[in-house]
C-alpha cells in the first residue's frame, strides 16, 4: 500500500534543534514537503526539491496565513534573555510567536503540533524562563490540536555558531556528573539536539492523541527506531 505523505512545517529551523530536525524531515518518507520558516534563506537548503523556505515575519504572521498550510507543525523557536535583551522581547519570541503560529496553522488545517519547551516548565514558577514555557504549554493545549506533543529537554548539547557561557559550563558539568544521572535522575541528564529532533520526528509518526509531555529520558526512548 502506498504511504500517505504529509506536509511538515518547522519554525525555528535554523536553531540547534530546528536544524537537526529539518535535516531529518527532508529524508523522511512520511513527508512529501517540508516548509521551513526562516528569517533569511539558508543556502545549503536552496536546492532541495522537497524543502521550501518561507521568509517569515512573526510580527505579521496573519498576512502569511497561506504559507502556513501543513499537517504537522514542529516549533523549535526560542531565544535567550541575552539576545532578547528584555523579558518582553523574550516573551514575544518564546510565547507569542509560537502561539500565533499554532492558532493560524490549526485554522488552516494542521492537526498535529510538536513544541520544544523546557525542563521545569511551570506557569506558576517564580523563574521567568520556566514560567513563560509553562504559559506557552497551557495556552497551546487550549487551541484544540488532535495531537499536541510537548517536549521538555534538559540542557541541550550540540555545536553552536555562537558562544553561550552558561551552556558551555553546563555541558562540561554534565559530562563530569554524568555517572550520577541514573535511574530517576536520568531526566536531568543533558541531551543532544539530534536526540530531541529524532524523538520529535518519531513521536509525530505515531501521532499520540491529546496532549502528551516528554522529558529528556522519555525522548531518548521515543528516539529509538520502532522494531518491526
Ligand atoms: N539551550 C538549552 O539548553 C535549552 C534547554 C531546554 C529547552 N530549550 C528550548 O529549546 C528551544 C530550541 O532551542 P535551540 O537551542 O535549538 O534554539 P536556538 O538554537 O537558539 O534557535 C532558535 C531559533 O528561533 C529563531 N528565532 C529566534 N528569535 C527569532 C525572532 N525574533 N524571529 C524569528 N525567529 C527567531 C532562530 O532564528 P535565527 O537563526 O534567524 O536567529 C532559530 O531558528 C527553545 O525554545 C529553547 O528555549 C533550550
UniProtKB/TrEMBL annotation:
One Pfam family hit: Epimerase
UniProt keyword annotations, A-Z: Membrane
Domain of life of the source: Bacteria
Signal sequence coordinates: none
Gene Ontology cellular component annotations, sorted alphabetically: membrane
SUPFAM superfamilies attached to this UniProt entry: NAD(P)-binding Rossmann-fold domains (SSF51735)
Compartments it resides in: Membrane
Domain NAD-dependent epimerase/dehydratase: 8-118
Main localization category: membrane
InterPro entries: Epimerase_deHydtase, NAD(P)-bd_dom_sf
Protein name stated in the entry: Oxidoreductase
Natural source organism: Paenibacillus bovis
